[in-house]
Amino acid sequence: MPRRFLDTSRLSLENFRRELASVDALPQLCLLAVISGALTGIIMIAFRELIDLGALILMPNGHGEAFESLPVAVRTGLPVVAVTLIGLGLGWQKKSARRLGISHVIERFSFHQGVMARDNWLNQWWVGIVSLLGGLSAGREGPAIHLGAGASGWIGELLKLPHNSLRVLVGCGVAAGISASFNTPIAGVIFAMEVVMMEYTLTGFMPVMLASATGAVITQLHFGSAPAFMMPGVIEPRLLDIPWLVLMALAIGVMAGGFIRLVRLGEHLARLPWFVRLLMAGMLTGAVACFYPQVQGIGYDSVEAILTGQAGVDVLLALALGKLFLTAITLACGVPVGIVGPTLVMGAAAGALFGLGATVLLPSMVGEPNLYVMMGMAAMMGAVLQAPLAAIMALVELTHSPDIILYGMLSVLSATLTARVAWRTQGFFVMTRQGSTQHPLQQPLMQALSRVGVGAVMDRSVTVTAAVITRERARVILDARPTWLLIHRQTDQHKADREPGKAPLALLAADMARALEEKDQAGVDHEDSIDLMEIPGKRLELAPIDLQATLSEAFACLDDQRVDALYVRHITAPMMHRVSGIITREAIENYYH
Question: Which residue ranges traverse the bilayer (predicted)?
Fold first, then answer.
């Protein structure tokens, strides 16, 4: 009875995996998305509670960003201590384990089919906490996205799901991470689709929306439904504000492009030892924090001070320019910190400065000052990430004011275009990874093929056989009506039935049937065997590919191995596998067309 239950469970899981290989496996993906969102929400609660616990120990009033209340020597030395701990913790590990945050998630999504690295995920926990409590100019959204994407991806890896569904799960983790951090579920969806997945499809949208909503529900049950920023009043925009908003957006676009270029200084700083670069970032942060501690941490408390009009002009300049410089240099020096939170703070300060300037110059043309603050936040986020739609949706959800959509569109798009044209930037995460080359997910062919697993397109009608077989064996094979014969080049028939050799060939079963029929008609009775390597027919060189792979992986493998077909293998035990099917280049091309 237990054995029958295990066999039934294994069969159900196999069918579940097979359905997920298809492009329209929405019910299955939606189920996994709910699990992904709930898990990410729980992880975000744990991450934020650990930060709050550290704040209770370090900060006089227990507030996570109360660096202003610390003695000057303490807040100046904290960043140096933080980078020292990060250097000691990551220095003995391989360089690939130091890649954290959103850039790492995009790398794994784009080049590793969403398979997340465990060492990087574990490092993200403590590095994110140390960065925030240590007073570095850092955000919590990058760690949230990495932690959510990693945990969600592991659900798929645990179940050995095909890579096309694994990629959707990673997108679900990204959306739930943003949603749980900001309490903005729609912005989380758009961010995942626009920045990480770089596509808008129904198959991607619905699971990602479910995960984002689930993550928001879980965190709201624990932290409440208040957004990341509390607006002091209702914002009422006016058409007279548009010229000043556009002018502000142009300036913020220049700032955003300059931020990305500063980060790319890391290519030149790479000649210095890594630990020296870390100390440089920590000392520079400490030096600025000696006079303006507001630049430390995420800076959400500073945004609240700006919204309530409690920030002076010198503080606004420090937040707009000083925080921009420190965040960029910290990243350029190799410290893996999040950037979404700091960009919002920079934008808020820049917007407040423009609002004050407009009020002094032309008070009759300027409306609500907080309009400029919120528009500045959205404009900086959209310009740095080159994700205008995500920035606009975040703006609407944070303000709960649909009346500002028009003004948000003008501000965000003006800043985004300015950064793109003036500085020739393609977005922070594209520019810092690929330079001027095209992102792989911006290629329509690879994007379409990444949505489908090989299991949905491969020909399952395959029989593995040795090269030389008896006529009786040939007839038994033909009775099963296979389309393809996968020819093993060894003579051990029993082993050939289980798995192929290192360089198998594919032959159409119809060619063997034709050869067998010709031998029968010719009356060749003295030959009891048939050599599949000698009979007339077209034989295809094969290379292996895993059942979890996507069509984009199969397409790349065909080019790399210079073969015309692949045999799809399913690992059943360590060092053992079975053949699940054959996929040809023609089958992939037919699917795409």
Answer: 21-47, 72-92, 200-222, 242-263, 275-295, 315-337, 344-365, 371-392, 404-423
